[in-house]
Design goal:
Thiol Ester Dehydrase, Chain A, elongated, five-stranded antiparallel sheet, single chain, alpha+beta, 3 helices
Length: 132
């Protein structure tokens, strides 16, 4: 599968006193890219939530490799994985456009819960994360 790609630009207020993007902001970038990826695949996060199906993060592994600064343009690649029957994962990479330098790699693992709070993989989600 070809990676999904979404482009961004760093805004001034996302930077800390050192002039680099605050480490917590990267998590927001990653989340937005995951939601856009799901929409691109026909999975509407908001509609699932309204139906009582909650997609939740259960584990986040982030490896910071370089820093972004104000005005930097970058993209995030998203690749889906299926580590188990009731878990799905997003392998994500943030790449600075000016030099194609990887800034961060991440593996975000999640599951979905039904209205009773039990693990449940909705059929729309199952199509995006096929088991191998």
């Amino acid at each position: 599968m070809k990676p999904f790609r979404l482009q961004f630009k760093v805004r001034d207020y996302e930077c800390d006193m050192q002039g680099i993007v605050n480490n917590g902001v990267y998590f927001n970038y990653l989340e937005h890219a995951r939601h856009e990826f799901l929409l691109d695949q026909g999975v509407n996060f908001a509609e699932l939530t309204a139906a009582g199906i909650h997609l939740v993060v259960v584990k986040a592994e982030l490896d910071y490799k370089a820093s972004l600064t104000s005005g930097d343009e970058f993209y995030i690649e998203v690749l889906p994985e299926r580590p188990s029957k009731v878990r799905f994962a997003f392998r994500q990479t943030i790449v600075r456009l000016s030099d194609n330098k990887p800034v961060l790699t991440a593996l975000i693992t999640g599951t979905s819960l039904n209205a009773s709070g039990r693990p449940y993989i909705h059929s729309d989600v199952d199509k995006v994360f096929p088991q191998t």
